[in-house]
Amino acid sequence: MGKQLKSFFTAPFGDPIAVELNGSVLSLRLEEAATIEVESLYAN
Q1: DSSP string of 14-36?
Q2: What is the pLDDT of residues 12-35, one digit of tens each?
Q3: For 16, what's the count of Cα atoms within 13 Å in the CB-facing half-sphere?
């Protein structure tokens, strides 16, 4: 099972973004963020 990731902040021009993971805030370039596999916790 993976970890829950929360979108925290997006820079004015969209890059980088900040996400919260396990209580820590991480800054990621969009190129790096694109490699993360995401599954919604909410059913459609």
Answers
A1: S-SEEEEETTEEEEE-HHHHTT-
A2: 998 999 999 999 999 999 999 999
A3: 9
